[in-house]
Design a protein that fits this description.
single chain, about 550 residues, alpha+beta, Beta-Lactamase, 2 domains, 20 strands, globular
Length: about 550
């Protein structure tokens, strides 16, 4: 006989989810770096005793990549008998820790009930620096993982409820701005302690058997939802190919290919034909590929459903080893989010004929990274890293959103006021890029422009962009979106175009850094756009008269 009814399983799921959400908020409210406390580049999850994700907070889908295999790696390395109450484990490595890139550092804590290991809590946060050859650990020009920062296998960071200071000292010695990094690590550790306390409170309301069966039921429910969603897709084979601009090291037009086979309630995704792993740091670990696939399928077939290990059961992923989508050690992976975005692009492009009403046109397809560092006028060293949004694709019933993060990189905008309050930087412009949304019955979203200047000092700038050459594509007659760019603005106002992945440039305060992110593709033929929307496009000044004339034959 079952121990729990379906209603009780749902009550337990909501209880666990609330703990996850509280852990997320605890990190956000106590972290030191703007990347976490303001931009919310962190996630939390709860696992069962076998290491399967039961609930994950709805924050960054890409962080699921670094969660799915985390407990399994720790259990393989230490064994259950060598894990005790009060332990915590630190990990970030894509190859031995099943992470996705080094700046995403996970901290895992076991939870015991009557001396029995029954669950785990974990969180992951993107640290603005993890060491390596360039400030921010995300610059172009990196050709192997050793250059990208400190590799951390799953190791103890706490024992018997005490932080292991020698381990923490080793980590902090290898990073820039160690006090800020320490504050972020303390926030992660505190969140795990909070999660463990909340689970102990939950244990007073549920028996051991109820918790175990309930967690299994939560995972199985997600599997059923995934299978039902896949079964609702038309059986058949679907294919699509797109390209990455370059790897920052001379390799251009890097293909990402997918063949999708749907049969009944199972789906197979084969990435044969994708490029071999590249010299630069655009390579993606299998964990990142897995998270990208699950995200793309979730938004198409079950956008309102929970996220956990159950999503994997009906999904079969095959990717060539040592490829750009499934890299092999010692490949550089810092910019793997760019590749994850393109993986999602090709999955959505392939399935557009199957479910045209659900798929959106190509989004900005980038994870625009900007890193600024240097010694400010006050003599203090600073390091600031952010990612910048762009356009979201038009869809079958609505225009694409302007200036947002899309898909797996679901971080927040950092307000100019917060940026300028904490760093010796001036943001001279922050605006939408005119004419950057692809034309269509439903237009694509618009890209962003940010212009930064160092105040009273020469700063070091590194950037990572995409879709500077191949624009985001439109669907069903929609036009492509605008491309991205990175440039310097000289004192006379002239622009000096840079590569889309510049590394460690020295920028004097007489010059400013201008980053323009891609727009997104339109959906449906432009001729079908209604006149009222065109008039609004013109009046809002988002689109010029010449653009509207060219693409819509608009007269006003």
């Amino acid at each position: 006989m079952p121990v729990l009814s379906p209603i009780q399983v749902e009550l337990l799921r909501n209880g666990l989810t609330s703990i996850c959400d509280e852990m997320f908020l605890a990190i956000m409210k106590s972290a030191y770096s703007t990347n976490i406390k303001e931009r919310h580049d962190h996630s939390a999850a709860i696992f069962n005793a076998e290491g399967k994700v039961v609930v994950q907070g709805e924050s960054l889908p890409l962080h699921l990549a670094s969660m799915l295999g985390l407990v399994e790696v720790v259990l393989d390395r230490y064994g259950r008998d060598n894990i005790s109450p009060g332990d915590m484990f630190l990990s970030n490595d894509p190859f031995v820790g099943r992470g996705s890139h080094l700046p995403d550092v996970a901290i895992l804590a076991p939870v015991f009930r009557d001396d029995e290991l029954v669950m785990f809590v974990s969180n992951i946060a993107h640290h603005s620096d993890i060491g390596g050859m360039a400030p921010g650990s995300m610059a172009g020009g990196m050709t192997e993982i050793y250059q990208e920062g400190l590799r951390i296998p799953p190791i103890r960071i706490a024992k018997n409820h005490e932080i292991l200071d020698d381990v923490l000292d080793l980590v902090l010695l290898n990073v820039r701005v160690p006090e800020e990094r320490k504050g972020d690590y303390m926030a992660q550790i505190a969140a795990n302690k909070l999660g463990a306390r909340r689970l102990q409170e939950l244990f007073t309301k549920w028996t051991r058997e109820q918790i175990s069966e309930g967690c299994t039921g939560i995972i199985e429910a997600v599997t059923r939802r995934m299978r039902a969603g896949i079964a609702d897709l038309p059986d058949g084979r679907y294919e699509f190919t797109d390209v990455l601009d370059d790897d920052g090291m001379g390799t251009t037009n890097i293909p990402i290919c997918v063949k999708i086979d749907i049969q009944s309630d199972e789906i197979w995704l084969n990435f044969e034909g994708s490029a071999s792993q590249v010299t630069g740091n655009m390579n993606n670990s299998f964990a990142g590929l897995q998270a990208s696939v699950l995200f793309a399928l979730k938004v198409l077939i079950d956008p309102d459903g929970p996220t956990n290990h159950g999503m994997l059961d009906p999904v079969h992923i095959d990717a060539p080893e040592a490829s750009v989508v499934n890299a092999f050690f010692p490949a550089a992976t810092a910019a793997r989010a760019q590749t994850c975005q393109r993986i999602i692009d090709v999955i959505l492009g392939a399935l557009a004929p199957a479910v045209p009403e659900r798929v959106i046109a190509a989004c900005n397809g980038a994870n625009g990274v900007a890193t600024f560092s240097g010694e400010g006028p006050d003599g203090q060293y600073y390091l600031y890293m952010e990612t910048i949004g762009g356009g979201a694709g038009g869809r079958s019933y609505q225009d694409g959103s302007d200036g947002i993060q899309v898909h797996v990189t679901n971080t927040s905008n950092l307000p100019v006021e917060a940026l300028e309050n904490e760093y010796p930087l001036l943001v001279e412009r922050y605006e939408l890029v005119e004419d950057s949304g692809g034309a269509g019955k439903w237009r694509g979203g618009m890209g962003l422009r940010r212009v930064y200047r160092g105040l009273g000092h020469t700063l070091t700038f590194s950037g990572q962009g995409e879709r500077a050459v191949t624009p985001p594509w439109g669907l069903f007659g929609g036009k492509g979106g605008g491309t991205g760019s990175i440039s310097l603005i000289n004192p006379d106002g002239s622009k000096e175009e840079l590569d889309i992945k510049p590394a460690s440039l020295q920028v004097e305060p007489t010059k400013a850094v201008c980053i323009e992110t891609p727009g997104a593709g339109g959906y449906g033929a432009p001729v079908d756009r209604d006149k009222e929307s065109l008039l609004e496009d013109f009046k809002s000044k988002k689109f010029s008269r010449s653009f509207l004339k060219e693409h819509y034959n608009f007269e006003n």
